[in-house]
Amino acid sequence: MPNALSAAEADADLLVLRPSKWTLVVIVQLRAGTMRFNELRRNMGGVPQKSLSQTLRELERDGFVTRTAYATIPPRVDYDLTDLGRELLVLAEQFQHFALRNRQAVEEARRLFDATTG
What we know:
Blueprint: H1 7-15, H2 23-29, E1 35-36, H3 37-44, H4 49-61, E2 65-70, E3 76-81, H5 83-101, H6 103-117
Antiparallel strand pairs: 1-3, 2-3
Helix pairs in contact: 2-5
Keywords: DNA-binding, Transcription, Transcription regulation
InterPro entries: HTH_HxlR, WH-like_DNA-bd_sf, WH_DNA-bd_sf
Pfam family, one: HxlR
C-alpha cells in the first residue's frame, strides 16, 4: 500500500499547478469557446506541436479543459474550458493585466540585472 500523504503534503500537491510556458496562453485562447488543436496552435503562433499537446493533456488531467474526440475522417478533436477552467481564466486575465501594466518596470529590472551580472 502506498504511503499516505500528510495533510500538509496533500494540500501542497493540490495547490500545485504545473504550468508550462503555454498554460495560461491556452486558457486565454479558449476564452472564445471550443477550438480544435490546429486552430489553437495557429492562434498561439510559435508553439511547438509537442508542447501544445503536453499542455492540453496536463490541463485535461487537472480538470481545466475537456477533450472531445469525434470518429470522423480526418479525426476531429475539440478542446473547451470546464467550469474550473473558466475560473482559472479569471486569474489568467488578471495576470495578463498585471503583466501589461508592469511591462516597462520588468523590462527595466531585467536590463539592470543583465548589466550588473554579466
